Amino acid sequence: MLTNLHRKSLATSLALLLCGFASVSFAAGGSAPADPAPVDLGSSNPAQTVNVTLVLGLHHQDALEQYIYSTVTPGNPAYHRFLTTAQFADRYGATADEISRVKSFLKQQGLAQAELLPNHLAIKVSGTIGQFDTAFHTSIHDYRAGDGSTFHRPNAAPSVPAELAGTLVVASGLNSEARYRSHRVSALFPPQPGARTNALVKGAAAPATAPCTGNPTATCTPGEFTVGDVANRYNINPLYKAGVNGKGSTIGIATLANFLPADAYSYWSTIGLAVKPDRITQVHVDGGGPLGSAAGSGETSLDVEQSGGLAPWADIIVYDAPNTDAGFFDVFNQAVSDNKVDSLSVSWGSPEIFYFPQLNGGVDFTDELLAFHQVFLEAAAQGISMFATSGDSGAYDTVRALGGSLTDPVPPPLTADAPGSDPFITTAGGTTVPFSYAFSGGPTASIGKESVWGWDYISNYFQANFGVDITSEVFSVGGGGGVSVFWPLPRYQQFTFGTRRSEKNQTLFLPAFGIDYKLPANYRGRNEPDISLNADPEAGYSFVSSLDGAGLLTFEGGTSFVAPQLNGISALLTQSTGHRVGFWNPQVYFLQNIFGYGSWSPFNDIRAGDNWFYHGVPGYDQGAGIGTLNVRNLDLFLRSGF
To answer: Which of 133, 142, 303, 536 is catalytic?
Structure first.
């Protein structure tokens, strides 16, 4: 969401316009400056007990990746022969000898083993900070963040004990900093509940004038869209008419905040959607995530409401964990190791480059990316379809995370969001659908066709109609996308026209943190997103989160709506095909490369709009990926075995 500073400065400027000062020069307050570097408070209490997950390296990764591709390749003997967790552990997990050596090391250090996960990729342990300092040759310190919160993390890079070299990937949990944010965005000055306009935004999304037809739960009203409108736009209704409603499939939600399940049932009831009763199960990993508006409970609510609304008869398991590095890893690890869900989505993330040692005082967190990658590989081998968000900061992922602006001495770099940049997860991008709008009493304007989502169209509106430049206020809100500078271009994108390499002269300049980091140029990296759907909150959705406000909350959006929507769609496809869909990307890229676009294609090409850098063009682009879905057509291809 926009910060309060965003809203205050923009409100002041627009109020001047309304009072007749249309010629006044606009001095933007700009984005809130990045918080200063955390203050080192000294060594943490050595007697403090902490829980840490030791991530063990998998074996035969090349063979594992080949097996994953074979499970989604029609005609291959392994087609749809997904593994159980036990089979995965036996073929690719840590060996009995490696696990024995880790246990021996823990005993020597006085650390207590809490749990060996069934995939044999992680061991949960507990001990004191002093014990972990000794075990990993580091010094864990307390820090105070710019917002006043405190956390602990190593002040020097931990080292892997010699006896565990080649076995241990990372000790996750030595850092308790809240590092991830949800990808949910509110419209600029949305109307108050029950009102279509207010003093600053007039007719931001006009009510539909034609009768609303199609899905009975649809509103056909931008800003108040429901899952029924998603079904209308992306051709899901034929599946419902054929009796496909998610029955027999299980949706998984990975999240970093607890929520109130009653909110989801309230949403479905309010829009008139009949759903399977008592369908939600909660699993609180590592004690569970926090509950509250500021903690992000609304994100979890909308994830459940959107995915479960599109597949109303599917079961739902919500895995929530604390917002820490260990929590984020453990929530994936638990969900995938349980192997109860057929698809799993996450709407939290962080800029990929934030894991790099150049941004963490020399402490390398990229091992965490490798740890996530192992679990994503396991999910794909087990046939679990996974979806992540691409972010809501357009092509400049660090801007919303740090509060940068166009007026900084060095422009923000083009960056990708993690975990969406991982090549073994399907990443959700954002579009803007056709709608009409008018801001601040100005003339009505329209977006005529579905476009890559970027709020520069709002900036252009104020420039054209009032001579006011509000770019720094809306930059760089839009659908995330770009090129990874960590993960190489995956096999399924190598024959995709439109993929790009990383751009030159990209620098992250953060003097408050002592950071002046030049990103790798011309890197042939994984491109994201993969699939997009409507995400613009100006033409966005309603949802229920009683911790954020009463009743239906409207004009909400972000790619955090798209990832769970794809999750729900995958649940429908699971029922329709009679088996798990598995890893989407090799399948959808093959279909796009071979069959392209057209009336029988599973995809709609997005050829307009931009996310502040990447433009909608024919074929693949870094704003919308390979495009939006025609779900009926995708279902036909999957059921036919291509």
So the answer is: 303
Structural domains in the chain, CATH included, are: 181-640 (3.40.50.200)
Task: Tell the residue number behind the tokens 């109307």, with chain if given.
Answer: 191
Tell me which H or E stretch contains 42.
Answer: strand 39-43
Distance CA 127, CA 635 (A): 50
Give pLDDT tens digits for 591-626: 999 999 999 999 999 999 999 999 999 999 999 999
Measure CA 57 to chain center: 25
Is residue 542 part of the annotated active site? The answer reads no
Query: Is residue 133 annotated as a catalytic residue, yes or no?
Result: no
**What are the backbone dihedrals phi and psi of residue 294, each rounded to the nearest 5 degrees, phi first?**
-65, -25
Cα distance between residue 436 and residue 279, in whole Å: 38
* Helix, coil or strand: residue 151: strand
166 pLDDT band, cuts 50/70/90, is confident
Pairing mode, strands 451-452 and 435-437? unpaired
115 catalytic, yes or no?
no
| Catalytic one of 560, 570, 576, 601 | 560
Cα–Cα distance for residue pair 348/154, rounded to 1 Å? 24
Cβ(572)–Cβ(342) below 8 Å: no
Instruction: Please pick, among 229, 299, 422, 605, the residue that the annotation labels catalytic.
Output: 299
Compute the C-alpha angle 320/326/330, nearest 5°: 50
Pairwise CA distance, residues 408 & 613, whole Å: 17
* Distance of alpha carbon 143 from alpha carbon 151, whole angstroms: 5
Residues in CB range of 515: below 8 A, 6 or more apart = 358, 359, 508, 509
Residue predicted with more confidence, 576 or 409: 576
Residue 278 is predicted with a pLDDT of 97
Three-class secondary structure of residue 622 per DSSP: coil
> What's this model's pTM, rounded to 2 decimal places?
0.92
